[in-house]
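Milestone M4 deliverable, item 7.
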Amino acid sequence: MRRLRHAALTLLAALLLGACTHAPEPRPMPADATPLDLPAFMGTWHVVAHVPYFFENGKVATRDVYALREDGRVENLFVFRRRFDGPDRTWRGLSSVVPGSGNREWKVRFVWPFSTRLQVLEVSEDGRTALLATPDRKLAWIFSREPVLEDGELQALARRLAGQGVDAHALRRVPQQPGQEREPILR
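Output delivered:
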């Protein structure tokens, strides 16, 4: 019975992830996109807003922790809580930089053999914030080195994502501390 349940859950996860692996025609990177300084991008990024998808729904205090491996790939730890007083949970992923992308497009895999792509659209000059999206711009994330951004800065970043083809009205705040709501960024 346990093996059957495990097989059913594995099949369900594979079907759900299969929906995320469609490789649409990628949108080009911004014309002024300079190559990403990959070592400087490594470290902890708090997910302060996103266009949510089913694996991210209901999670709080989420962050991505990136570490460059000797083989050039990027280890990706997705750390989250189901509630603020709960323990950290971690999903381990592995990313590969897409050749010719200036380190700005990655092939991301959390469950073999399924993968998706994401693009690092922008990193602020001071390295505090970053904008990421899937090539089709249906999913997007606003990252910050700090867990909380001021509303005005968050709204400005959402508008920058809109300029990149993201439906910024679909962006929702990711609660990083108690009292924050999963509210729309732009109204």
